[in-house]
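Batch 3, record 17
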Amino acid sequence: MPPEPLARAQFPDGFLFGAATAAYQIEGSSFGGAGPCHWDSFAATPGNVVRAENGARACDHYHRWEADLDLMQAANLDAYRFSTSWARVMPDGVNVNPEGIDFYDRLVDGMLSRGLQPFQTLYHWDLPSALADHGGWTNRDTCHRFADYAEVITRRIGDRVASVATINEPWCVAWLSHFIGAHAPGLRDIRATARAMHHVLLAHGLAVGRLRGMGQPNLGIVLNFDHAAPASDAPEDHAAAGRYDAIFNRWFIEGITRQTYPEEVLAGLGPHMPANWQDDMALIGQKLDWLGVNYYTRHLHADAPGTPWPSLRDVAGDRPRTQMGWEIYPEGLQGFLTRLSRNHVGQMPIYVTENGMANPDRVEDGQVTDAVREDFLFSHLAATRAAIAEGANVKGFFYWSLLDNYEWAEGYEKRFGLVHVDFDTLARVPKSSYHALARALARNT
Ligand code: FCB
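Prediction for the assembled complex:
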């Protein structure tokens, strides 16, 4: 049975509904004086990205941002989660590009004039190549450069943003990109991984310290969570799921809320950690104002004896899948919101900062019908509501994504948008999910 469309009135007063995007995925990095970032070189390397596509033009949001903001206003959204591009603001990682900060200044004013609260993310993966040349996230110095960038952009737009997140999805920044090698910089090296796992949180801590010192309110971080289930009842598979859970779902939140890292992960990464990492934990564990939760799917794990740590093997589950091949599992969202509130953040506000699905949507007779996305969206909104009923202090939900866009290693192949984008003409066509959401959010007058 498809879920009933929920309406705004079924959520607590003041609950925010929004859409999310990220700079490199929509703006067009070849415009406006942005510098090269590590995704440009990763994409230019054969075999990394579908059709070697990059974000040079993307959705051309850099020139079409007003129409894109209009789309969100017309969908009755309350907030927009966007990211500012480090490589646009500081093309060489050090010097400021005035055109870049002017762009974000206009963009934020454009949100406010349309009644959209600006939820800014500082780092959604566009590391300036100049910093990548010095080792990127494996180099501690990158963390200090990040705090400088945070200060520069906040001096310009901090007076008008509703909230600031430091890092988007540290697991992707560190593990996916340095251990699995699926995202830029495409390393597969345990020592680089250990360093990135720590430095990405150190960068967060340094930026929080810098912005607090400037009096900037409402600071948070966006973590991603992946429901980890054992592939069988065997104790070895339970332990395997536990190792995955510790790497993906515990390392970052425990670093931030407990100033420790899980033993199960240090068992593998410990020998490769930067010297005296323990001394950074107080900085990493500074108090925050809110937590962002990105949630998409679950994975089943089996023990893989005879392979190096973490000795894991993925096993296919039996749920329907999205175009990404990800199982649809809304219970996992409810589970994480409840678990995080009980075990980690208490009544500190939580936002679902990303949730969505890819689907091979097509325009037919000028329309896009994506009923499967409507079901996905409303079942995850229902899961959010169930977590609120269980006591989680969830304050908002951002759908990923407003537009079909550059889906990283998947290029333009995977469509996550509420709005269809034709990547030849760049025409936007709101999908049926967009219209369903707009109806659900209409305010009764
Ligand atoms: C998340 C990313 C986002 C997008 C979605 C599908 O991991 O934060 O940029 O790629 O997945």
